[in-house]
Write a structure and sequence with these properties.
Helix content is 46%, strand content 17%. The protein has 15 helices and 14 strands. Strands 2, 3, 4, 5, 6, 8, 9, 12, 13 and 14 form a ten-stranded mixed β-sheet that branches. Helix 7 runs antiparallel to helix 8 and helix 11 runs antiparallel to helix 13. The protein is globular and about 70 Å long.
């Protein structure tokens, strides 16, 4: 099939989103041809606000199952493709323009479009944490959501890896223990957890600082041998962090190294190992791992979480520290200058620059 302008249904599930829903819907203006909102029990002004944008507002009785709610929302769609968002997501102006262009020139052989999901930012607005999600899917494929919590869309077919970003603009909420309660209820009822359930249950325990319980669940997850690669890596990182919080440095190191069983080194793990040895005052080992982080190529279109600092400026900043402690201030200065190219206003980078220029003296002729 050739290129043409497609029609799009925006399908959302909402509950008590009066602070964010208008911002979300304003940001996608012109993209959806219909907006379907499924409300799972709002007690605020959410539905009144939504009705300014669409008449397609349906109620869905909440049954502690996100996939069920999303599948119901998808079942109401009538257009060629379905787009899904959460109420605290937005499209930045540049991404909205890209999306409109994509819609106008869409290759209709494509079944799924995945997009980067930008989840965290630093003070200057640069992205610090991101991953990818399937966002736009062909309606006639009847793709299904799976999972009561941390649900995912099961897809197959022709996929387009887009550079159109969805930006998460979350706010503080009072239901932060909702997901954990759902898992605890399912566990109490004797439900057997899939590997994916175990991974996300571990995440909920970790986020609530139940580190000993999280360790057990993450270990059970890895022992299934059935986890997604990126979840396996993440579980190793979370296990290392749990053991670090509990003061068990040997176990922390064990799980940092275990990540290499699943994939070639990632910059995130190299930086964690660098810091492990830096803290232990083993500066040569620390420098080794930070140097390795600077030599790695970013995985192209990786679906897993990415900490941008580890792939850019952070290892250079830490190499500056390692080499200074090793007495090689010229090399320390060199790496600090590389970090400064990425973060010219970073206070630590600027402090290092002033300190090292003082130590080296301008007569040394160290190049920036």
């Amino acid at each position: 099939m050739g290129d043409k302008t497609i029609t799009i249904s925006l399908c959302m599930i909402v509950r008590n989103e009066e602070q964010t829903i208008a911002r979300c819907l304003d940001s996608v203006k012109g993209i959806p041809d219909e907006i379907i909102i499924v409300d799972t029990g709002s007690t605020d002004q959410t539905k009144e606000i939504v009705r300014r944008y669409t008449d397609e507002v349906a109620d869905f009785t909440w049954i502690d199952n996100f996939a069920a709610a999303r599948n119901f929302a998808f079942s109401q769609a009538t257009k060629d493709y379905i787009l899904w968002l959460d109420a605290d997501d937005i499209l930045a102006d540049t991404d909205r323009e890209k999306f409109l262009k994509l819609k106008k020139e869409f290759d209709t052989s494509i079944d799924i479009v995945n997009m980067p999901y930008l989840l965290a930012f630093d003070q200057s607005g640069a992205v610090t944490f991101s991953l990818r999600r399937n966002r736009l899917v062909r309606r006639s494929k009847n793709f299904r959501w799976i999972g009561a919590v941390h649900e995912y869309l099961e897809v197959y077919g022709s996929i387009l890896n887009s550079d159109i970003c969805i930006t998460h603009k979350g706010i503080e909420r009072n239901d932060s223990d909702r997901n954990l309660k759902i898992y605890e209820k399912r566990k109490a009822e004797g439900e057997s957890f899939s590997p994916r359930d175990l991974y996300y249950y571990g995440n909920e325990l970790f986020d609530h600082k139940f580190y000993k319980r999280a360790i057990k669940v993450y270990q059970d997850f890895l022992e299934t041998g059935q986890g997604w690669l990126e979840d396996n890596l993440s579980a190793c990182g979370k296990l290392a962090e749990c053991f670090e919080k509990l003061g068990q440095k040997d176990k922390e190191l064990e799980y940092l190294m275990k990540s290499f069983e699943y994939a070639i080194p990632r910059a995130e793990f190299c930086c964690r190992l660098g810091f492990y040895f830096l803290e232990a005052k083993k500066y040569e080992q620390g420098a080794f791992w930070y140097n390795l982080a600077t030599q790695l190529e970013k995985p192209v279109d990786s679906w897993g979480p990415r900490i941008e600092a580890c792939w850019t400026w952070l290892p250079h900043l830490q190499l500056c520290v390692c080499y200074d402690r090793l007495g090689n201030q010229e090399l320390a200065y060199k790496h600090n200058e590389i970090a400064r190219k990425f973060r010219p206003d970073n206070p630590q980078v600027l402090f290092n620059k002033k300190y090292l220029e003082g130590v080296l003296g301008m007569s040394k002729g160290v190049e920036s």
